[in-house]
Amino acid sequence: MPAEEERRGKSAKQEKAQVSLWERIERPAPPPRATLSAHRIAAVAVAIADAEGIDAVTMRRLATELGVAPMATYRHVSGKGELLELMVDFVYGELALPDPAVGWRDAMRTLAERTRAMLLDHPWMSRGDVLALTPNQLALTESGLAVLDGLGLDTDTMMAVFRTVAAYVHGSVTAEINLLRLMQDQGWSNGDETRAGLASRMTWLMDTGRYPAYRRYAGEATRKDDREWQFGVGLDCVLDGIAARMGI
Amino acid sequence: MPAEEERRGKSAKQEKAQVSLWERIERPAPPPRATLSAHRIAAVAVAIADAEGIDAVTMRRLATELGVAPMATYRHVSGKGELLELMVDFVYGELALPDPAVGWRDAMRTLAERTRAMLLDHPWMSRGDVLALTPNQLALTESGLAVLDGLGLDTDTMMAVFRTVAAYVHGSVTAEINLLRLMQDQGWSNGDETRAGLASRMTWLMDTGRYPAYRRYAGEATRKDDREWQFGVGLDCVLDGIAARMGI
DNA sequence: TCTGGCTGGATACAACGTACACAGCGACGT
DNA sequence: ACGTCGCTGTGTACGTTGTATCCAGCCAGA
User: Fold this and answer.
1) Would you give the DSSP letter of residue B109?
2) Which residues in chain A land under pLDDT 50?
């Protein structure tokens, strides 16, 4: 590329003519301009949120991590709301969608389990006040509808079924994450430590005598820490109910 | 300031004796001390959140509304986290719990519907990163367990069933609220206005051709705006599934 | 009558989101 | 070839937020 080299040489010459030698060599080399893109912004923001929680994602911190001035991000994103939208869509983009050929029930199940895994990997997602209208969220919905296609359901019912499963998954995993976050904040690493940490709060509440059934649960239950089992039981109920009520 | 240091150690009466009559009667009467309590704090904070959204609940605004200095609230609450906990528990306290005598399915259904109504009345609740360990949240769980008692389920299963319904309700209503919030933020008052507002975003996405099933839904569905129907269908599925799988 | 402990007030500060004006650079019409 | 325009990133600044810290008044008990 002779033309490009020529142009560069010329602009350099022009600068040389205007700025004194000593000023030039004193002046720190202009840092290479970091190029920004929505994708890179999203990736870096997600990395911060994954590593240190969503509260660590500030516009300034993000800019630092991007190697850029605090306000630079605003060229690609109108504000923090859009940033969150970008982050959510970015994560949904990593979700592997199931093959509808395996049958609606198995496909729905893997969809649910993968969504759960995704949310557990990025716990800050469950706070998403983001509507499901980003491209990759829509792709998930599309996949859910495709899975339910050809079973004789009308579109209203297909969407209702998909939303039912999605609602269960989100609600269930959100509860799961809330507990995990509490444990992490307090430094408890398993169910026993957690119960020990909550003991004083709990005995105080139990001693009011207002929660006999819960007290029995606390004493008798043996699967309190089996989160997979709990999620699975509920999911089975939901899928059974769909199969029964829709006749599929 | 020697005068100030001198006055600091003296009782009210001593001060009265030293301060001139004119200074005393000119000086504005000390405002009557507002009495604070956790309950009043929660009630006022909830009122603000209901009226203007959770973001309007700042410590300063709350203090103003309570007729108190900004830092006064901190005597009753360790920080904003505990304030939110207080608010959430306050709202759960207004939830009417069902009579278990009507049978588990009806009781579960009214529990679900009343929880939905409560969340829709206080949309900021769905962002609760609060664990279900406050007295009134525990009372709801207790009620759910009581409803399922005596049906031959072990405690693990009872809790799993209750949590399944709760997860569905929270997930479903959260989605509902996210849409309602978008509509309110944009000033759209019904489904048609909303679709009109989203049209450009949507046609852009649909024209990618990546969402054929969703496009069909958008064209064919007739119950897109029937939120009660959507919630009810899903709830029926969940309850059916529980009945079938648990044999109750 | 004194004193200690609550409760509310006042001041202060760091961190946040973001508005605004500016500067460099590539592309394009002339 | 050259001026100009539009992007994109920079620098500065402002108002708001949560909350740490210290003070002052009041009530209970000695």
Assistant:
1) H
2) 1-33
* D chain positions with any atom within 7 Å of a protein CB: 7-13, 16-26
Neighbours of A156 (CB within 10 A): 18
What pLDDT, in 10s, does the model give residues A103-127? 999 999 999 999 999 999 999 999 8
Is the CB of residue B210 less than 8 Å away from at least one CB of chain A? yes
Rounded, the Å distance between the CA of A35 and C1' of C1 is: 75
User: What CATH superfamily is the domain B100-190+225-246?
Assistant: Tetracycline Repressor, domain 2 (1.10.357.10)
Which two tokens mark A33?
């301009």
Q: What is the pLDDT of residues B17-59, one digit of tens each?
A: 444 444 444 444 444 445 889 999 999 999 999 999 999 999 9
pLDDT at A111: 98
Matching CATH number, B12-92, of 1.25.40.80, 1.10.620.20, 2.30.40.10, 1.10.10.60: 1.10.10.60
Q: Does B172 touch chain A (CB under 8 A)?
A: yes
The hierarchical CATH code for the domain A22-91 is 1.10.10.60
